[in-house]
Write a structure and sequence with these properties.
Structural class: mainly alpha
Number of domains: 2
Oligomer: single chain
Helix content: over 70%
Number of helices: 10
Distance between the termini: 26 Å
Strand content: under 5%
Order of helices and strands: HHHHHHHHHH
């Protein structure tokens, strides 16, 4: 058989197997209905999330059904591209690259939103020095991460790129941010280094407190858990995901999937 996974599994392997079975037309109908129901179920999940975001973001939103209909029409028009002569190549490429990149990209955006955007306005409102310290930490992290990632991956020196990035953070960016804040280390730790993630991680750790004990008393491991969650979400995960994304792009540029041209 021509394939064992991906699009080949559904459109080559299964049809070839069904052709050897008794009453093949019945099994083809079952397969078609299964694919249709799976697509319908996926459409509900994919449409509901953007509809909610668009509806909540608008000051005077129209009825949710109008937003849903508009997104469905746009999706239908885009899907017509898959009905062209080169539609299967496009479908196969989109299926492969979305599966490989979308998870990484969504993870990177989630760490950006949770670790850097949430609650940062509270730190900026404290004073001008705290606002500067927050910006030094923010731009020093993301700009240097982008540069070290691009240069490191381009030169096939990902490990050295990570080590240089980490060194710059500990030697330059974090001390610079702390000195600029003109506050104590504990204040800087709470309001800059772990801003955004600390409140979230504390709320999560509180869920483990037992009601039969004292739910207001901090457990012995909570501080370590707060640091672990904050450090991984805000600093470690974005670094790893960024290098993985760039490495995957470079690999696919050098050896495109399926023998297709790189621009697919």
């Amino acid at each position: 058989m021509a394939g064992t996974g991906g699009t080949s599994l559904v459109f080559v392997t299964y049809p070839a197997a069904i052709d050897t079975m008794a009453a093949p037309n019945f099994w083809v109908l079952i397969l078609s209905l299964t694919l249709f129901m799976l697509g319908l179920d996926s459409a509900f999940a994919m449409i509901e999330a953007p509809v909610t975001v668009i509806y909540d973001a608008m000051k005077n939103p129209p009825h949710r059904a109008i937003i849903t209909a508009a997104l469905c029409i746009i999706g239908f028009c885009i899907s017509l591209l898959f009905c062209t002569n080169w539609g299967f190549i496009l479908f196969d490429a989109v299926d492969y690259y979305l599966s490989n990149y979308l998870l990484y990209l969504v993870g990177l955006l989630e760490t950006f939103g949770v670790g850097w955007m949430f609650d940062n306005d509270r730190t900026a409102a404290m004073s001008e020095n705290w606002q500067k310290a927050e910006r030094i930490n923010f731009y020093g992290f993301w700009l240097i991460l982008a540069i070290c990632g691009l240069i490191g991956v381009a030169n096939e020196s990902e490990i050295y790129g990570m080590l240089i990035f980490i060194s710059i953070q500990f030697i330059v960016i974090l001390p610079w941010s702390f000195i600029t804040s003109e506050g104590s280390f504990s204040e800087w730790y709470d309001n800059v280094l772990m801003s955004s993630v600390k409140r979230i991680s504390i709320s999560m750790s509180k869920l483990a407190r037992l009601e039969e004990e004292d739910p207001t008393q901090k457990l012995w491991w909570e501080d370590a858990c707060v640091f672990y969650f904050g450090f991984t979400v805000k600093y470690l995960n974005p670094m790893i995901l960024w290098f993985v994304i760039l490495y995957s792009i470079k690999s696919n540029m050098e050896s495109p999937y399926g023998g297709y041209a790189w621009y697919w």
